[in-house]
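Researcher: Sequence recovery benchmark, item below. Answer with residues only.
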């Protein structure tokens, strides 16, 4: 039902919606700190489902303003067994229908526009209080959403639609002025947020416990000559319907991904791997996981 109603406004006023409420609480917290040092984990719920936006954001975008769904009929040929099982999930069957994607995506974009506006409110408060000059801000997300891409719904598996999330760092230090407003193409991971904050606070980096890397050398320089050459992700699908479809033991529902600038390799214990040539196929429409011509590439990435 909520898919059909995505074009309608939420039943609560915008100022009482999740994004507005959470921003109000963040502003209240910051104002209460005065000149004291503080740290805030400001975690917004939206644009999570249910994909219902308050007015006026529900009608801000239309079907003619959304990105086209990234999918191809050839993805349904010789499918990877686990991906095929995911495509049988209820959310995937729904989002495979064009009318669902064209209805939900405008509401999703409206929810993002609402976040943009309320982040503006928050930044205005930081400026008014003089805290924009000494506050490190990391804006990121836990995952993306398929919304029909690759014939899928929800948020799992290893396509860039889900994995490639925002990572915007505002470093107020004058040493970062030279890189301000630039884009860095090097691979970063969510585990880099904590070491970045620890270094900014001049705290023990706890290198014996923390696997990530501080991003401050990328903002302040000198940038390291060597950076990571791959990013990693992992999945446990034991709680998903795909496990039942595939008749897998809960202990056998794992997957592991390596992503370099050129390749994406996914190890599926019990099944063949997946491989995507991101240079030639940035949309990830051609799975080379069973192509004998790429056996050497798969072997190297697996090792």
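Model:
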């Amino acid at each position: 039902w909520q898919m059909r109603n995505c074009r309608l406004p939420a039943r609560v006023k915008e100022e009482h919606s999740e994004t507005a409420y959470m921003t109000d609480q963040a502003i209240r917290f910051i104002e209460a700190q005065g000149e004291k040092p503080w740290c805030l984990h400001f975690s917004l719920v939206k644009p999570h489902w249910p994909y219902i936006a308050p007015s006026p954001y529900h009608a801000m975008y239309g079907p003619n303003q959304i990105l086209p769904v990234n999918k191809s009929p050839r993805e349904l040929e010789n499918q990877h067994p686990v991906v095929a099982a995911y495509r049988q999930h209820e959310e995937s069957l729904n989002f495979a229908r064009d009318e669902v994607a064209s209805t939900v995506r405008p509401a999703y974009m409206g929810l993002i526009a609402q976040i943009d506006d309320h982040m503006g409110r928050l930044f205005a408060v930081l400026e008014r209080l003089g805290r924009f000059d000494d506050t490190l801000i990391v804006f990121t997300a836990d995952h993306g959403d398929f919304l029909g891409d690759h014939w899928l719904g929800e948020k799992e598996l290893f396509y860039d639609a889900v994995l490639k999330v925002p990572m915007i760092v505002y470093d107020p230090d004058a040493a970062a002025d030279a890189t301000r407003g630039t884009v860095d193409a090097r691979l970063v991971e969510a585990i880099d947020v904590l070491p970045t904050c620890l270094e900014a606070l001049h705290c023990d980096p706890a290198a014996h416990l923390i696997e990530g890397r501080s991003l401050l050398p990328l903002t302040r320089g000198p940038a390291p000559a060597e950076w990571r050459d791959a990013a990693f992700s992992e999945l446990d699908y034991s709680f998903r319907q795909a496990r039942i479809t595939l008749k897998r033991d809960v202990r056998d529902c794992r997957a592991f991904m390596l992503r370099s600038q050129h390749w994406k390799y996914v190890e599926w214990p019990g099944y063949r791997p997946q491989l995507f040539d991101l240079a030639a196929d940035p949309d990830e429409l051609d799975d080379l996981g069973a192509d004998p011509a790429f056996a050497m590439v798969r072997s190297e990435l697996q090792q």
